[in-house]
Specification:
Largest sheet: 8 strands, parallel
Shape: globular
CATH topology: TIM Barrel
Distance between the termini: 13 Å
CATH architecture: Alpha-Beta Barrel
Radius of gyration: 17 Å
Strand order of the largest sheet: 7-6-5-4-3-2-1-8
Number of domains: 1
Length: 226
């Protein structure tokens, strides 16, 4: 068994344990292997080990890997997306996690319209309020949701966040709780929409994120490190 296969096995076990702790089905939690900066060979090893969903942070790198890998991969874009890079992403990914403005939403919708597709998206929320982080402020999310509903080429599937760096992992819990509560509030306001997606938790804090309701976790270092 390769090192990546071993890491994937361990991560999946830990996902299952965190799910069981919160009374949830591990099958409801999607593991996104964050492959930014990793060569195609390592991604292929992950595919061989049964991993099908991979996340990229950079538009040009995503486009290159989509072209280089013939594997049955579901790509997600999880990084900050600039409007001038939209053409590299839309149509190449199943899900964009990082819609954070009406301007970006319009650009993604225009490209999806040109390709005659409907693009699934998440709204990235800056729940910590840190200036160094991307994402819409919590009080901007309602207006952004309404704007997305006005774009028929987009399908809003939920929310994403990145918790701040903390001294103790338990300190990340309130941020994940805040995103879940925001999602629940939006689901009540818009019962016709499917907003179940909660993309939160990375290598250092995904267990806590799962306990707080994450159903997508973005894990890179714990899978690709030696």
């Amino acid at each position: 068994m390769s090192k990546i296969a071993e890491n994937l096995h361990r991560v999946r076990q830990e996902i299952a344990e965190a799910a069981a702790k919160s009374g949830r089905d591990p099958q409801d939690i999607e593991l996104i292997a964050v492959s930014k900066g990793r060569p195609a060979q390592l991604i292929a090893e992950g595919v061989k080990a049964g991993q099908k969903v991979f996340g990229e942070n950079r538009a040009q790198e995503l486009r290159e890997k989509v072209g280089a890998l013939n594997a049955d991969i579901e790509w997600h874009f999880i990084g900050h997306l600039q409007t001038n890079k939209v053409n590299m992403v839309v149509g190449n990914v199943a899900l964009i996690h990082s819609i954070d403005s009406k301007r970006l939403a319009r650009a993604v919708a225009r490209r999806a319209d040109q390709l005659e597709i409907r693009q699934d998206v998440l709204i990235q929320v800056n729940v910590s309020g840190e200036e160094s982080k991307y994402g819409a402020d919590s009080d901007e999310v309602l207006g952004l949701v309404e704007a997305l509903f006005d774009e028929p080429q987009l399908r809003l599937r939920g929310l994403m966040t990145i918790a701040p760096m903390v001294a103790r992992l338990e300190e990340s819990r309130p941020y994940f709780m805040r995103l879940r509560e925001l999602r629940d509030d939006l689901s009540e306001r818009f019962p016709e929409a499917d907003l179940r997606g909660l993309s939160m938790g990375m290598s250092q804090d995904y267990r806590i994120a799962i306990e707080e309701g994450a159903n997508m976790v973005r894990i890179g270092t714990a899978i690709f490190s030696d």
